[in-house]
Design a protein that fits this description.
Layout (H helix, E strand, L loop, with lengths): L3 E6 L3 H11 L4 E7 L3 H11 L3 E3 L12 E4 L6 H10 L3 E5 L6 H13 L4 E4 L6 H11 L6 E10 L2 H4 L6 H4 L3 H18 L2 E15 L2 E13 L2 E9 L5 E8 L2 E6 L4 E6 L5 H31 L8 H17 L9 H15 L23 E4 L6 H10 L4 E5 L7 H8 L3 E5 L5 H8 L4 E4 L8 H21 L4 E5 L29 H16 L6 E7 L1 E3 L12 E4 L2 E3 L10 E3 H13 L9 E4 L7 H12 L4 E3 L3 H17 L10 H6 L9 H6 L8 H9 L9 E2 L27
Parallel strand pairs: 1-2, 1-4, 2-3, 4-5, 5-6, 7-10, 14-15, 14-17, 15-16, 17-18, 18-19, 19-24, 20-23, 22-25
Antiparallel strand pairs: 7-11, 8-9, 8-26, 9-10, 11-12, 12-13, 21-22
Helix pairs in contact: 1-10, 3-4, 4-11, 8-11, 12-17, 14-15, 15-16
Amino acid sequence: MEPTPVALVGAGYIADFHLAALREDPDVRVVAICDPDLGRAQALAADHSVPECVADLAELPALGARVVHICTPPDLHAPLIKKALDAGLHVFCEKPLALSEDEARDLCAQAHNKRLTLAVNHNHVFHPAFRRLVQRVQAGEIGRILHVRTQLAMPIAQLDAEQYSHWMFRAERNIIFEQGVHPISQVQHLLGAPKSIETNILSSRELLPGQQFHERFSVAVKAERGTASLDFYFGAPAARWSLEVLGTDGFIEADLHRNLVTGERKTQSLEAWDSFLAGNRRGKDLKRDARRGFWNWSLFTLKLGPRQDSFFLSMRDSIQAFHASLRGGPAYPSNAEAIVQVTAWCDGSAGDLPSAPAAQEPFPEPGPARPGEVVITGASGFIGRRVVRRLLERDIPVTAVVRRLHSLPGELTEPAQDGRLRLVRAGMFDESALSQAFAGAHSVLHLATGGGDSWEAIQANMIEGARNVARIARENGVKRFTYCSSVASLCNRPGLGLITDDEPTDARIDEREIYSRGKAYTEHALTQDFASADCEFLIARPGVVMGPGTPMQHPGLGLWVRDNHCVGWGLGQDPLPFVHVEDVGEALARMTIHEGPELDGRALNLVANVPLSAAEAVAELSRATGRDLHFHPRRFAISQAMEIGKWLVKKAGRRKDAPFPSWHDLLSRSLARPYTCNLSRDVLGWTPMEDRQDFVQQALRIYAPGKDEQAAPESDGKATQAREREADPTPKTSAANS
């Protein structure tokens, strides 16, 4: 048969993994990528040599597509699946299929009636450790299954970064469908349909006013083939994902985080000797799996073997198994029956939690700029919302430019509702929306960063994004433009003396990592663009900004190789250029409204003289949190030798894009030079927090347990949610693999 023509709908993060897996399947041919953002689709298509890009799913059949992979946010799955089925396309959807059991049943019935295949990428059923566990269970090693226990404790980067607009935070039950579905799909694979579910919420916190997030769940389930207990801790400081199957004659446990499997079974030996044999066998299991994992990683790193990490293998094997079943091979496990059952597990585990965000009054349409209007891009961010509040406290009219209008912080929603704040939804390349925001405004503060994982992305997003915003501001008659850069753009090598205001950017910036390079190049580009413009131009360079809303593992302290182990950029004994986020917000507010030309064309350092080193800061964090935090001082020469060793491994693996480690960049990461901030202090009257104890209290002790955690209401032991099901809850119709 000819290769199956496939199209992807959605060009976000997960689509890249789908394309990488499909590239390894000779029986599949990717013909198109569909995304309303054609620019994003085209960039992804270029990376993977996909020939066509369209904005509407309805165009895919004409391009020859027979199967679509739905790779969009979960709330778009159901309408897109219906549209794909109506177009006569088989569907392979990212998890979850739907957000309720009834909706999942309806979608499966629709696929069945149209004789089309509908399946879900429950890829962790293909996790290599889980597959080894299932093989041992099916071989009868522990007898009949009695109980399954799983524990998922995972950090969530979006939670630490306060990216509360992500879908998983928008409604209280979403986190179960976004993250809890992974272990749930595995437990369903072992036990079948749920019959009753009891959920207790153990810990909650409020992310934003009216936006509740439940961190810890304990779920007890009676299922077709046994019982189960599931413990979830979302946003945990330490990662742990385990699944244990207790049988009549032993147990098997999979450490899915480490890809390890071990177990214990009954023997005829005396108790003491049996205990020795059990420990010895489990040790052998763990050593074997650990050696296999390290060996596979080494071969891949040296380009002597294929990629073998657990997540990639689970994605590749799941996707390839689906397409093999579509071509007449073995049945894919996440078919219609499993789809409905997994959705039922998720639906029951989420219980009565709201399925939609709390109703929000519509924001007023932004009218024309008011006299003295200050426009802030990136206004909903860590620093931006502080600037908004400081300006509104002075009765300065403010416009907040944001990418999304949902899940905004209280500093924006309340004044937007009462008319004190104009809200404009725009990105850095939205010409008309930015013109609407800037027209008639006095000042623009550009805080939107625009990052990326490559220098090409930094150039396109950070540098060209800032230049585009600045151009639109000039064309709309803005009188002052302030760019928020960073001290990372400067040479911070130890032993070079004071860094004063207006210090030129690092003369060897091309040897630095891409973020520092991007900030410096943006400063250069904007300085040239404003050289002959009738608009004041200012640069702000904050130091190591600390305070509520920044992750505890700040990269300015060192390299956090684990979330409790920080390797210093050097010995970590010099005071760092710390500054509290509230003080940065105050300084930027003063810069935007300062009257007088003294600051035109100037660069202002925003650093407080806090007598606190990286080593001391980590020690203070350890005391405040009660965690086992460690700062590891490391001499630059040792760090450089280790970096060269990594480089040699990459070169041995024929990585042509691996640059030689920069000694200059390594030294600059230490941030060891002291700063003066005369312009901000003398001209603006800025007085940042500099007392060590005050700074420790307000920037480091905020991470003490209980600061953001709200205990769930005490339970009387009864179930928060109990759902009784019929003996056979599976659908009577089945969209089995065709």
